[in-house]
Amino acid sequence: MRDILIITNYFPPETGAASNRIFHLADGLQKHNFKVSILTPLPNYPTGKIFKTYKGNFKHSSTENNINVHRLWIYASNSKNKLLRLIAMLSYSFSLFWFFMWSKIPKTVIVQSPPLLVAFTSVFFLRSKKRKLILNVSDLWPIAGLELGAFKKNFSYKLLEKIERFNYKHANSVLGQSNEILSHVTSLFPDKDTFLYRNYPDFVTPKISERTISKGKLRIVYAGLLGIAQGIYKLCNELDYTNVQFHIYGNGAERSKIETLISNNSELDIIYHGEVSRDKLHEALIGYDLAIIPLLNRIYGSVPSKIFEYARLGLPMVYFGGGEGEELIEQYNLGWITEASNYSKLNEVISKINPNELNIEFKEKIKASAIKHFDFQTQLQSFIHEI
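^ Glycosyltransferase WbuB, sequence as received from the core. Prediction below:
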């Protein structure tokens, strides 16, 4: 049995794509005879507060699903203040350094990036000719931060670029969730070993249901983070509700704005359901006509994991984000695409969708395509062969 350590900022009971991705990777590895350990902060996402069960702990270790989970101290914060967020990342980096000093580290380590500083701490202290470091890159920072408007090209940005390059240089191999990520890495380090590791889900697919008519409208759903990058608040304001009812699941920075908008504008056919468990969400999602996947701006390297999850549920999509995600929707006939940030075009595309097309046969084709092309176990087997 081989030991492997995964260092990540997110892990259950935290919710979201990053947490799910790392859990499925860890669970898959332990089922293939790996002894898996996780290093992660005390749970705090997305509230920015340590979860009640873990309050008062400096460190918490447990065995969950045959995985050894070590939860380390962090100064938790989801503040928009950049200094407080920096302090939060540095606090976890400090905890990692302390753990490295007093613990035996396996010869194979997977490091999640971003956050860049956490990845840098791990790579800096663990790089060794006797150890294999695998950098799992889910988003391209600081490029993504620049495209989102979070950064400017100044001294701080150049420093983050140097940290990014250091991490790539000293990792033995790089996992990337998109071909764009891998292209970026090899443009900097042409000889670097890379592996395309997408965020494929691993769950038993529920039975697809007949579409439910609601006021004669298309029932469109968004489920996920209500953050700045997704732009759900703006989407609520821009959608044409003539033939659309919009359902929202999730939590995040824009939640209060969305709730206020709904409260003050009863003419907008929007229903906010709050945050629900993943299993309950899947049961709800299969009853909708369409899912929408928006990005406020096209982000280089980003491929929303919702594409793979919705496809496995047989849920048609309207993709509103550009880039590689757009290519996947077209390649596997998963729904419709439209130009990011062009709301008039989005409304035009939705208005031309024939509800009769959104039948069980169409949804079953999407589901079958996902099972064939987005299979978690097939990908995992290929990755294990590369370790």
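DSSP finds 14 helices and 14 strands in the chain.
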